Amino acid sequence: MGANDPNDVPVAAVLREAERDLHAAIRYKTTLERLLSGGAAEHRERAALALARVSTEYPEEVHGALGTAVDAIADDRRSVRGNASALVAMVAKTYPDDVARHSDSLVEALSDPHHTVVKNAVEALAYTTRSAPQGALDGRDRLAALLESTDSEVRRHAAIAVYNLADAYPDRVDRTVDRLATRLSTDTDEVTRIAAAGALSAIAREEPGAITPFVDDLEAILRTETDSRVRGNVIAILAELAERDPAAIAPLTETLTRSLSSSEHTTLVNATDVLGCLARSDPDLIREADAVPSLRDLWDRTDSREVRENVSAIVEAVSDQPADAERDRRSAAPADLPGAMVEEALRIAGESTRQVILDIETFINGRSEQNQTTVEVMDSAVGDLDVRGREEAKREPSDVRRREEAKREPSDVRRRDG
User: Fold this and answer.
1) Could you give the angle at the alpha carbon of 205 between the alpha carbons of 100 and 274, nearest 5°?
2) CA separation for the pair 183, 217 (Å, rounded)
3) Sign of CA dihedral 183, 186, 188, 193
4) Alpha-carbon Rg of the chain, whole angstroms?
5) Cβ(238)–Cβ(253) below 8 Å
6) Measured by CB atoms within 10 angstroms of the end CB, which terminus of the chain is less buried, N or C?
7) What single-letter DSSP state applies at residue 171?
C-alpha cells in the first residue's frame, strides 16, 4: 500500500473511526473486509458491525465484500454471523442475482441457532428467489417451518420466498399447503397473506386436489378480508380450481358475484375469470346468483380490456351462443343485458384472460410511504446484533433500533482490556 493509503492506518484507529462515522467506514472498507476475513475475534466483530452499518445506507459500497460476508455467516461468533448476514441481506435488496450465487449458504443459515442470522437469511432469500428460485429449493422445508415463526417479519419473508418457489416449482412445495392456508387465514400482516394466497394459487395450477379441501376456508376469507389485494389473490386460487373442478366452486357463485362491485383490477379480472368457468359449466349458476345486473354494471363502468374479455366469455356461455353464429344475437341475450353489450361481448368472446397474480416484488421494492416494513426489517435486523459489550456502546445509545431479543440476551462480545 502507498504511504497515503487510508488502509495503512493502525487497526485500532480504523475501528475507532469506522464505529463513529459511516464515511470513515467506507474509506477503510478494505481494511475492515480484511479484518472480517481473518482478524482476531474482537476485530471481526467490530469490522462486521461497521460494514453492516454501511450496508444499510450504501450497499453499493460493500458489494465487493459480499463473498467475505457470506463466509463470515459461518463464524463461531454469533455477533459476527448476525452482522455479516445483515450485510448480505441489504446487498440482496440491490444486487439479488449476485447474492443468489450464495443461496446454499443462505439456506444453511436458516438453521442457525442465532435468530438474527435466520431473520437476515430468509429476507435475503425473499429477494433472490424472485429471479433465482432454484437456489432455495433445498431449503423449502425449512422455509415452510419458518411460516410458523413467532417473528412476523420472518413469517413475511418466508411467505414471499415460498411464493417465489411455488411460482416456479408448484409441484415441489405442495407440502406447505397447510401452513400457507393458516397464514392466509390468520396472519395480521397483509403482505404475508398476499404471498400465501399467491403461493396457493400457483400450487393449485399443478396440484388442485391439495387445495380443494380449503374451499370453505377460502370463501370465509372472501367474506371477511378487507385488503383488496389479498381478495384478488384468493379469487385467483378459486380460478385455478374452477378451471379443473367447477362443481367444487359452484357454491361460491353468489360470493364471487358480490366481488364484481370491487374497484380493484386484480379482483375483477379474477372474479370474472372464475364466473366464466362456472358459466361454461352451468349457465344457470349465473342466472340463479342474479349476476346479470352486476355484469351489466361492470361492463358499463370498466375500461379494462381484460375484464371485458372475461365478461364476454360469461355472456357467450349464458347466451348459449357461439361467437361466430349468424343468428340474431339479441334474441339470445338473457334479461337485463342490453343488446349492444351482448353484440360487442360476443364479438370478442373467446379471448378470455387468465387471472393476474399480484407480483410480490411490488411489496419488496415498491413499498408505499405508508408501509415501510421492508426497510424497517433491515434496520431492526442490524439493531439485533450482539455488540453491546463494549464500553462505548454502554455510554452511547445506538442509532440503530434493537429488537427485544437483543435486550433480553447478554452479548457474547468480550469487553476490551484497559
Assistant:
1) 125
2) 12
3) positive
4) 27
5) no
6) C
7) G
Residues 6 or more apart whose Cβ sits within 8 Å of residue 190: 227, 229, 230
Report the amino acid identity of residue 203.
I
H runs (alpha helix) in 147-264: 152-168, 177-186, 190-206, 208-211, 215-224, 228-244, 246-249, 253-258
Closest CA to 258 of 235, 237, 277: 235
From residue 18, how far is each of 34, 48, 249, 381, 390 by CA, in Å?
Answer: 14, 11, 61, 20, 15
414 has a pLDDT exceeding 50: no
Domain 1-112+388-418 has CATH 1.25.10: yes
Highest mean pLDDT among 57-66, 303-312, 346-355, 384-393: 57-66
Q: What sign has the CA pseudo-torsion 81, 87, 92, 97?
A: negative
Phi, psi of 266 (to 5 degrees): -60, -45
Per-domain boundaries in the chain: 1-112+388-418, 239-360
Q: Is the pLDDT of residue 321 over 90?
A: no
Per-residue pLDDT at 142 exceeds 80? yes
Q: What is the pTM of this model?
A: 0.80
| pLDDT tens digits along 161-215 | 999 999 999 999 989 999 999 999 999 999 999 999 999 999 999 999 999 999 9
Number of Cα atoms under 13 Å in the Cβ half of residue 366: 5
* Long-range interactions of 177-185: CB distance < 8 A, separation 24+: 177/203, 177/210, 177/211, 177/214, 179/144, 179/147, 179/148, 180/147, 181/214, 181/217, 182/147, 182/148, 183/147, 183/155, 183/159, 184/217, 184/221, 184/230, 184/234, 185/217, 185/220, 185/221
Query: Mean pLDDT across the stretch 270-295?
Result: 93
Q: Which residue, among 7, 73, 8, has the nearest Cα to 44 in the 3D structure?
A: 73
Is residue 265 packed enough to be buried (19+ CB in 10 Å), middle (13-18) or exposed (0-12)? middle
Angle at alpha carbon of residue 84, lines to 82 and 88, rounded to 5°: 115
Torsion (CA) 123, 124, 126, 127 in degrees, nearest 10 = 130
